Fold this protein.
Amino acid sequence: MTHIDLPNALWVKSSYSTDGGDCVEFAPEFTATHGLVPVRDSKDPHGPALLFTETAFTAFVTAVKSGRFDAS
């Protein structure tokens, strides 16, 4: 497997993140080069990151947009 250098990645804050601290960041360079989508909490930049395949991330975002995970 190819080494993924996430600590040195260029992280971008999601445009859907709120100003109240609910911030998600992703590293788009890995999508183009490896077909992967790294995601992390911007409040914990040295903490863990999740690594999704493009297909899995697209399915997750689609489910979120459809309200599948709404807590009511």
In short: Residues 7-65 form one domain.
